[in-house]
Amino acid sequence: MTVNEEVHDDIIIDEEKLIDALERQDIKAFREEYLILHPYDRAIFYEKVDEEHRKTMYFFLSPKELAEIFETSEIDDGEYKQFLQEMDTTYAADMISYMFVDNAVDVLKELDKSQIASYLTLMNKDAATEIKSLLHYEEYTAGSIMTTEYVSIPQNSTVRSAMTILKNEAPSAETIYYIFVVDEDNRLTGVVSLRDLIIADEDTLIQSIMNERVVSVLVFG
Fold it and tell me: What is the pTM of this model?
């Protein structure tokens, strides 16, 4: 194994091979080698290579695939602006729209107001609306760190129906390990863990296994 190779989850990361595919403009070879890597390793490679190689990666990867890299990476706040400037504006806007809303807001808050407005204009309406709903909260407040991508279930539903809801909504949720329980007026009444759902009988009512000791705060904006 050379100095340019790393191991993660039993998959060898051959940086030289990836860079060679980028330089030869071989999209098939690059994607086959790159997309089998753990998302964290994809992020490391993305941050390691120079600007010219990253620009080729923007042609080889979809905005959704790049969003996963941004979600996983440990990019410093000040670097977001640099990376976004390397991309086509529409591509960057699409990439941000695929990120979880709270993470997308963290990225946009590092930009100038005119840049933020430009990206929001280019995004699809639903993504832009969700992001705008969090953008105006001050940093470190409850509103600025909350996520709008969670799973909630009615307290009078059964475990069987709750699992159906969870399976349908999990792909777009940021976290599924704890599920929020609400009443008929959509007010938070408790929380139930994924573990408790899995081990409970399918006909059990959610309100009988939920934890009612939850802490909530209001946001003001």
Answer: 0.60
Alpha-carbon gap, residue 93 to 128, rounded angstroms: 10
- To which CATH superfamily is domain 152-209 assigned? CBS-domain (3.10.580.10)
The SS3 call for residue 170 is helix
- Which among 55-59, 187-191, 195-199, 207-211 has the top mean pLDDT? 55-59
- The pLDDT tens digits of the residues spanning 81-133 come to 899 999 999 999 999 999 888 788 888 888 888 888 888 889 888 888 888 87
5-145 placed in CATH 1.25.60.10: yes
Q: 44, 18 in Cβ contact below 8 A?
A: no
The Cα 159–Cα 157 span in angstroms is 7
The full DSSP string for 49-85 is S-HHHHHHHHHHS-HHHHHHHHHH----TTHHHHHHH
